[in-house]
Amino acid sequence: MALSSCVRQLTKGSDHMSALPDIKIGQLRNFVAVVDHQGFKAAARSLFRSQPAISISVKELENLIGAALFEKNMQSELTPFGKQFYFTAKKLLEHYNSSIRGAVDLAHLNAGQVRVAIVPSVARDVLPRTLTRFIASHPNIEIWVEDGDANYVRERVATGNVDFGCSGGASNDARLSFTKVTSDVMGVVCSADHPLAMQKHATWQQLDGQTLISNGSMRLIDKALIDPLLRNSKMHIANITSLLGLIEANVGITILPSLAFPKLSEGICFVPIKSPVAKRTIGILQLAEVSLNPAAEEFRSELIADLEVL
Question: Is 183-280 a domain of CATH 3.40.190.10?
Answer without folding.
Answer: yes
